[in-house]
């Protein structure tokens, strides 16, 4: 199975409503063959689960996991013709997003960017990629759920009183920037469907493979070089330990039983760590 087959299977052989993209850092259209150890894009995984629960055909294109270049991402977007394209952007990927968006003039999907770079530097993101339609700062699940409920009619969701009370909205040039006032409560975020991740479907037997599990969000430390505070300030929120244990046990049955716990603060509360 190729990554193209993987997306087709996730969409049931139909046109995509949403294609979520972990953009490539590699700008060369020659595919790199060296194996890399990467964690799945958990943020996109949560958004995909929310969209699928809302009845929207959604797939994740993890260009980094499959070592693709911008030209391959453009081809995928043209092939699956999504109505919405969402990018999770780290700073080194800004240039690849610019190249992808610049090549999509005829396709005309709704283009949304989120992730660490648009959260910390939204104006810079839009200076480099001015054709984006929407930027979402911070943790996007609550905003994403509201957008899914109105099938991404941005004008409609912006008029809803409840939505207006929960976000800060501003414009930069012609693009809307939305930031949630309060981050989502962790117990309201749905359980991840790891079947959305190409590494689980295609790379499970590779020696570098591991399941990625989220135990907490936020960080109480004030490191000047870190952007974690841009999402939750200096507060830490832990998942229920029983729910976390149940998720790990589910993946352990599938094998191999290797896990990457992607939070920095689990050991700060020993009572939560002992059962784990």
Keywords:
276 residues, alpha/beta, Rossmann fold, 2 domains, 7-stranded mixed β-sheet, two-stranded parallel ribbon, 13 helices
Could you describe the 3D structure shown?
This protein has 276 residues and is α/β, with parallel strands linked by helices. It folds into two domains: 3-180, Cobalamin-binding domain (Rossmann fold, 3-Layer(aba) Sandwich); 210-273, no CATH class. It is 36% helix and 16% strand. The strands form three sheets. It has a seven-stranded mixed sheet, with helices on both faces. The chain is globular.
Write the layout of secondary structure elements.
Elements: H1 3-11, E1 18-22, H2 42-53, E2 58-62, H3 70-80, E3 84-88, H4 94-102, E4 110-114, H5 116-120, H6 122-128, E5 134-136, H7 141-149, H8 154-158, H9 161-166, E6 167-172, E7 175-180, H10 198-202, E8 211-213, E9 216-217, H11 229-232, E10 237-238, H12 241-254, E11 259-261, H13 270-273
